[in-house]
Amino acid sequence: MAGAAGSFGVNNYFIPSRSLEAVWWERQLFAQGRRGSLTAHERKIVKGLLNSGWRNQDVLTLISGNRPATVNPARIAEVKADDEQSAASDREVQEYIEFKRSFDNYTGLSPYTDERLVRSREAMQLAVHVYNNPSTNFRAECFAVLAIIAWTYISIEYCARNNLPIERQDGNAISLADFLKFKECPLVEGVRNNLKSIINLRNSVEHRTLGKYDREWLSLFQACCINYENFIVSQFGERLSLRRDLAFALQFSGLSLHQAQGMIEAELPQEIEAINSEVYQGLSETQMSDPDFQFSVVYTTVASSKSKANFRFISSDEAEAETVANILVKNKPSTQTHPYRANQVVELVKERTGKKFSSHDHTQAWKRLKVRPSGDAEDPSVTKQDYCFYNATFKSYSYSEAWVQKLCDFVELQD
C-alpha cells in the first residue's frame, strides 16, 4: 500500500507513519510546550496578552493551566522585557483563550485535544440517558447505536496511542468490529462477546418495531456500561470515570409480585426470538453466563419498615451477607475479579510486606490452603473462587486481591 504518508499495511488496515491528529495539530494555534520553557507560539501569545494589559501572574495562570508542564514564571518576565518579541494578533489571542477555557475541570479533557474521548463519553452518557428516559419508545435501537459509537471512538483512541491501525486501506476509519478482530485487542472474551452481540442487535433491530420488548436486552446493556467504565478508567485514567454520573432511576410506580411473575412467565413473540437467535449466535451457555457478557440483578422480597426500605449493597463475602435476603448477584469469577498471575502475586507480596517471598512460597501456600488443584488434576477449574480463578480458554490460573492480602497478612506474622 503505499504512499509517503503511510508506514505499512496490516491486512486491510493501515497505520499512518504519523497520526492524522499530529499532522493536523501542528498547524493549529494551540500547540502547547511540554517543558517549563515557552514554545515560539506561546511566546507570541504571552506578548499579546501582556500588550492587552494582562498581569504577569494572570498570564502565567492561563498558560500553565491544563498544560503538560507548568511554565517557569521567569519565562513570562523574559517575554515582557523582550522588545523584539512579536505579539499574536487579537484574534489569535482570543482563540487561544477559548482553547484554554475549553478544558473540563473534572476530566481534564478538551474537545480540541481529546476529541475522541470527549465524544466517546458523551455518546455513552446519551445511550444511558435515552434508555432511562421513560418517554423514549425505541430504547434498544438507540442504546445499541450510541453505545457502539462510544466504543468505536474509544477503541480508535486506544489504537492511536498504541501504534495500532486506525484506518482501513480505503482511508475510512476502522470500525468497532475491526478492533475486536485485532489480536492486540486488550478486551477479555466476555467483553468482546458482549460488544459483538450489541453490534448484532443493532443490525437486527434497525428500523424494526419492538414494542415493549426493549427490556429483553437490559442485561446486555448493563454489562456494556460496566465494561465501558472499566475500560476507560483502566486505559485513560480515573478522572474519565462516568461513575459519578450514574444513579438509580426513580419511578412513579412499584413492581408488584404479580407483575414480576408475569414478566417471568411471558413468552417472547416469534420475531423477538428470531432477533435473539442472531444476537446470541454461536455463544455457549458458559459464555452467555459470563458477567462481562450479561449483567443480572436478582431481587427478593424482605420485610422492612418504610424508613429502612432502600437499596443496600453488601459484598457477598461479608458476614452480614448471610442474613440479608436482598443481595446483588454474586460476581462470577473472571479475569476482572481475579486479575493477578502467579508471578504478579509474588511481586505484590514482596512489595507490600518488604519481606522475601518466592514462587516456591506461593506454590506451597496454595497447596496448603487448597486454593487450586495441582497440575495433574482431572478438573482444573475446582478452585476456591474467592481467591483463584481458572481460565479455561488460556488454561491458566489467576488470583484475586483477597488472595494477595491473605498472603501479605500471613507473611507479616512471620519472624
TrEMBL record:
<dbReference type="InterPro" id="IPR022104">
    <property type="entry name" value="DUF3644"/>
</dbReference>
<feature type="domain" description="DUF3644">
    <location>
        <begin position="117"/>
        <end position="275"/>
    </location>
</feature>
<dbReference type="Pfam" id="PF12358">
    <property type="entry name" value="DUF3644"/>
</dbReference>
<protein>
    <recommendedName>
        <fullName>DUF3644 domain-containing protein</fullName>
    </recommendedName>
</protein>
